[in-house]
Design a protein that fits this description.
33% strand; 6-stranded antiparallel sheet; alpha+beta; 18% helix; 291 residues; 5-stranded parallel sheet; single chain
Length: 291
């Protein structure tokens, strides 16, 4: 098999994890490929390593945290390859492999002892008041509309399938996939959804109302969020990336992307046990003063 490897160089210091993975793969007669930009790095000293584009790869491996994983998917999603991650971040909901089980994970993959999860993706499009498309992006986790730099209330009107649902005054709204249900939506009180499901979650953030609930809607539905007048420019962020030039009366439209994102599941633990373990681990991680 051919494995494309994309390390976050600020996490994988001196490429230690990249080197360890490459050596494991070579010992199993697999081909590790790194991006062409790394051909002058220490990785070039490993005999058998190649530096090329990722089109020929059977699988793409991210080395870093969840942010790195999302960034790698954003960069290479058009290749329609399965993704898997080695965790070098804090906890890592999306990264299946830890540093101490790289060999076990590789052997699982080579023996075919894994599943491909088809994860729902969202397309976010920002239009101005005249219907002109200003920005567009695809995300795996969520699209968040957040109040800006100052703590002013954000005024948003939510539409689902063209029907006006309600007007929100508060910190914002998050529209998430099942994958994103363990991210910002979880912190905002939204439900946990198993990652292979095909639904969207709409969750308000600190609404100035007497109710606070998420909406769970079908995959064929569309969401519109209309921006009202504001004193401070709100942020619109698909998977943490920021749309520029947000203006009053802009309209954000969100719908499902037809092609899913393929990720590798090794089945070391079940979904709910993984969530429980990593939420507990995250609390300990922060409590101990780590970043």
């Amino acid at each position: 098999m051919i494995f494309a490897i994309h390390p976050n160089t600020s996490r994988d210091v001196d490429y230690k994890t990249s080197i360890a993975l490459a050596k494991v793969l070579l010992s199993r007669n697999c081909t590790p490929i790194f991006g062409i930009s790394l051909k002058d790095s220490v990785l070039a000293s490993i005999e058998g390593v190649k530096f090329d584009t990722f089109e020929t790869a059977d699988m793409i491996v991210s080395i870093g945290g969840d942010g790195t994983f999302l960034s790698v998917i954003s960069k290479y999603r058009d290749l329609n390859k399965p993704f898997i991650g080695i965790n070098k971040g804090s906890i890592g909901f999306l990264t299946e492999i830890s540093e101490n089980n790289i060999e076990e994970a590789v052997d699982h993959i080579l023996s075919g002892n894994y599943k491909i999860l088809n994860r729902m993706q969202l397309k976010a499009e920002l239009y101005d008041k005249d219907g002109y498309l200003k920005s567009s992006d695809i995300c795996l986790n969520d699209v968040s509309v957040l109040r800006g730099a100052k703590p002013h209330i954000t005024k948003l009107t939510l539409y689902i399938d063209g029907e006006r649902v309600e007007k929100f005054y508060g910190d914002g709204i998050v529209v998430a996939t099942p994958t994103g249900s363990t991210a910002y939506t979880l912190a905002a009180g939204g439900p946990l959804i198993m990652p292979a499901m095909d639904v969207m979650l709409v969750t308000p953030l600190c609404p100035h109302t007497l109710q606070h609930m998420s909406y769970v809607i079908g995959p064929e539905s569309s969401v519109e969020i209309h921006l009202g007048e504001f004193e401070t420019v709100p942020l619109i962020c698909p998977d943490g990336r920021e749309f520029p030039n947000v203006e009053q009366n802009d309209v954000l439209r969100i719908c499902k992307v037809e092609s899913p994102c393929k990720t590798v599941s090794l089945g070391f633990t079940g979904f709910f046990q993984t969530v429980k373990r990593k939420i507990v681990a995250r609390g300990s991680f922060y409590e101990n003063g780590q970043e």
